[in-house]
Amino acid sequence: MSQPLVGMDLHDLREALGPDQPQYRARQVYDALYRRHVPDLVHITTLPAQVRQDLSARHSLGLPEIARRYQSADGTRRYLLRLDDGKTVETVLMPEGERDTICISSQVGCPVDCKFCMTALLGLERSLTAGEIVGQVLVVVRDNHLRQDGGRLNIVIMGQGEPLLNLPNVVKATRILLDPDGFALSPRRITVSTAGIIPKIEELGREPVRPRLAISLNASTEEQRREIMPLTRKYHLADLIAACKAYPLRPWEKLTFEYVLLKGVNDADADARRVAKLLAHLNAKVNLIALNPGPEIPFETPAPERVAAFQQIVRRSLPCFLRKPRGLDIFAACGQLKRVAEPPQIALL
Ligand code: SAH
């Protein structure tokens, strides 16, 4: 199979072009891939025809193919993208006023067994390559003619998978997305979310180029977290908070904690007070998410008044926002990415 170019950094591209090519050739290809978003190798017209031909003989561009698009009534679009080996993964575009957010996946399926999440039901099929991670962004940007200027575009690595269990590829993809000579996104505009893989949080903190960090907290006590996020048996809540305290934030940065509210499980006033206390000494904000329900998910969504009361309590101690569900009708919202192919009343493009 020909080797994909998308996902290669300058060093990889120099190797792919071979020692006979001048140094600037790699830069030309890099620019075509990540700044000009060419849809095909033949479009890299800055290269001499012969070089282009040689390159195409050994390499493909390697962008994922759009298998399906699902359009939500609220403007959200869910993409089912087909990868080189025929496996499919999901990417979601959420346009909202002045900004566009693309939610990308880091793995096909997910190995973390959170009890409220539909992606967990897939299990892990495999991790994505750096090229498949960057490729999701390139495909969605191109398909929607998205603009990137003025901080319009945000990327969240919150789709299928546990990004910190695929850290090398996530970091490599992030470097390309953040490189001023590459995709040129600001580091404020890309966020990676983890279920709490503690040693990998420490590893990420040592990376000079990295996205913002969000942690899926989802519980206010060790026992409660162990029930709904079994990975807590290995990575204890107290250690998670300690790792967050030690995490080297940049001057402009805060940690984000996501908290999925499950009716009668973790949504009491006492939970809210415990969350505020747990996070009291961190430079953090909280994003509440009322459960997005799904078949086979044994939890219910709390009433809006309960959610509001919870938010009020946390807010006394730290910034606390409510994440609006996006694309519920097409199974595109948080925790719903399970490649649901034919949900009822779904609008296909
Ligand atoms: N595995 C990583 C990246 C996925 S982010 C992580 O866990 O952080 C997906 C977010 O959606 C997580 O914060 C998760 O807690 C949340 N989530 C999962 N299932 C959900 C559901 N059914 N309703 C609302 N949010 C959910």
Your description of this structure?
The chain is of the alpha/beta class and 349 residues long. Helix content is 29%, strand content 21%. The protein is built from ten helices and 15 strands. It has helices at 10-17, 24-34, 49-58, 130-143, 167-178, 198-205, 222-228, 237-246, 269-278, 304-315, and strands at 3-4, 59-60, 65-71, 77-82, 88-96, 99-103, 107-109, 124-127, 153-157, 190-194, 212-216, 255-261, 284-290, 320-322, 347-348. An eleven-stranded mixed β-sheet has the order 14-13-12-11-10-9-6-5-4-3-15, with helices on one face. A two-stranded parallel ribbon has the order 1-2. Helix 4 (130-143) crosses helix 5. The radius of gyration is 21 Å and the shape is globular. The model has no long low-confidence stretch (mean pLDDT 95). Bound molecules: S-adenosyl-L-homocysteine (SAH). S-adenosyl-L-homocysteine is lined by residues 112, 114, 116-117, 158, 162, 193-195, 216, 218, 258, 260, 289, 291-292, 297, 334-335. S-adenosyl-L-homocysteine (SAH) is lined by residues 112, 114, 116-117, 158, 162, 193-195, 216, 218, 258, 260, 289, 291-292, 297, 334-335.
